[in-house]
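Re: weekly structure request thread

Next one in the queue (365 aa):
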Amino acid sequence: MTVRDAKQAIAIAEGAVSQRVLLATDGVEPSPINVFGERVVVERGRDVPALVNRSAALAASGERVALVASARDLTAARDALAHIAARRLGLVVHCLDNGPEGVDAPSDLGSSSALSLADLPWGMLVAVGAAESLDLSLVARRAAEDSGCPFFVVHEKSSAATSRRSELLVAPTREMGDSFLGGARLAPPPGGDMRAVGARVPFALASALREMEALSVRRLDVLERAPAGDASLALVGFGATGEAMVGQVARLRAGGHEVAAVRVVAWRPFPGPRLVKALSRAVAVCVIDAVDRPLSGSPLGVELKAAFSDALTWAPGYPGIGRIPRIVSGVCPPGRAMTPRDVDALLEHLSSDDRAERTVVLDRG
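Done, posted below.
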């Protein structure tokens, strides 16, 4: 089937495997019967905190539950979301990109609202485009149920160059549901406290990504890297901003630039060791966020610097390094697409000497 956006992809995924789908948005129409032959009950409402509490009650009763809401509205339900994690309920919440229309402040745009939930003990994946929205919705479901940790899936629109592209996807089948999720019955949550649950999440997520990659024949990992080898200069981002930079690497390398790009897919658990391994041989790294937090630093830049600090001090699980690349933190204003001209300007700035500014902000276009 041809799918154009994240809402259609969510409908396909949750209509195939869920028993109950709670919607605080329009445009998501799940199948009435899932692949296991069970009825999919859809509940709609605009009171997101009430829907979060309703999701928790249904998941605690043993139903496979999904909630779809805007990230901005979910921030009003932080206490209820934290309670879900404490109860080890493996449900999935889909956070839709607010987009630039009808918002009051830059903090409401793009992933800004979603990242304000990142301190909760939930997994968080950032999907770009319909195919990845479908795949990561199912990955999050499998990882949540295996680990007992609920998952957010943040759905971002693809970059301007590809946003109108339709993608041909294959809907999940009963065979896939049986092999990937273990059938219609929801297993009881694994035992242990939240610390034990957190220790299981990386393994559950890695296993789900590997199996979904084999089923979908699409590359899936906690990060996307282009090219596979090392480079002296590197660009790092997540969501549509990261996708735009990865998409420019071939052009830049054809022009003689030794540059690589990395897009972060898993925000929680954050793939710090993998990022350090991918970037440790770079001379300079530019981290671009579509989140503007001038008083606290860019979220991805802060995470990356912390990962390199752990590696430099030989923290367990991190590759040993002897130096940290020069890291430049940049901001692409929320609601603004990254362009090839932006990427060229960032690369020029990254190629300058150590006296160059360590913080850059792209103009609002």
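The CA atoms of residues 75 and 117 lie 7 Å apart. The chain has a mean pLDDT of 91.
Next request, please.
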